[in-house]
Amino acid sequence: MPYPLVSALVLCYNQARFVAECLEGIRAQHYPNLEVLVNDDASRDGSAAVIRAWLERSGMPHQFLRSHANQGICRSLNNLLGQARGKYIAGIAADDVWLPGKLLAQVEMMERLPAKVGVVYSDALQMDETGQLLQQRFIKTYRSFEKMPEGNIHHVLWEGNFIPALATLIRRDCYQRVGLYDESLFYEDWDMWLRLARCFEFAYSEQISAKYRVVATSMMQSQSQRILDAVCQVCRKHLQGGSLDSEARRAAVRQLRRCAIASFTHRTPRHRRNLLQALRYGLCTGVATRLFLAAWGLGPNQFEWIRSVLRGAKWEGVS
């Protein structure tokens, strides 16, 4: 087969310990038509010097973008996508590693599939900071399936994200249809999967393609409160968009309710606003009502008045 160009997008922030191993994993793909694009998001630990030295030694086609101020995951990805030329996009964080043959297997699979399939994904191994493999794989950490979801998985995704971004291959044309990453969000992948799944099918590859590193300082480990707030933000964004079918809308409301209650329990920075937004979509009975009242120091006799005000409110400007 002719080998279509693949753009490997690498995001780095303070990963000097791991980034060379990540880049070696890309070189070990031995994929014959590959460009490497790396964004260092204003690291303070010498990551940029490690990256620059490796890229110069590798001789691989590459671009190195370095942010002078920290821009976050979504803007960094958009910067890289703006430079990418590949037919396919494969992204990875600088502390993770691709397994040999990942790109070739996924490209060959995608080339056989119709254009309505926008994403191929697989499972990933998990490892600790020293590289020791952990017992549980990535997907099982978040969801349990008898058969891995394929085809139209939009409704499945509303029950929670389970796709390891480092183990995917995406048609670059898909971004022209659904747009780039939402830079108002704290993290990138779930919102993008939901948007892609509205327009494209997903395919699952049985070949485990990557190793995900569980690091104490990673976003998923250290920023759990902000992630809860971001999940509520994604739910509200898609609900306010108005284009969800009835099943997806019900699933989005359930997810918003669950996360709004969790955000209150953990007193996230936006826990009051999350409850207010959930109330907008019918969160008004039982324990959730008591949480809402407690959040604002209201008594039960004030709740019906609040509901009547909310029903008449304009919600477009609520953030």
Write structural notes for this entry.
The protein is built from 14 helices and 10 strands. The protein is of the alpha/beta class and 319 residues long. The protein has 2 domains: 6-222, Spore Coat Polysaccharide Biosynthesis Protein SpsA, Chain A; 224-311, no CATH class. α2 (47-58) links the parallel β2 (34-40) and β3 (62-66). The longest helix is centred in the C-terminal third of the chain and has 20 residues, at 246-265. The radius of gyration is 21 Å and the shape is globular. Mean pLDDT is 89; it is low at 312-319.
What is the CATH superfamily classification of the largest domain? Spore Coat Polysaccharide Biosynthesis Protein SpsA, Chain A
Overall average residue pLDDT: 89
From the alpha carbons, calculate the radius of gyration and give it in angstroms: 21 Å
Order of helices and strands: EHEHEHEEHEEHHEHHEEHHHHHH
State the distance separating the first and last CA atoms: 49 Å
Strand content: 5-15%
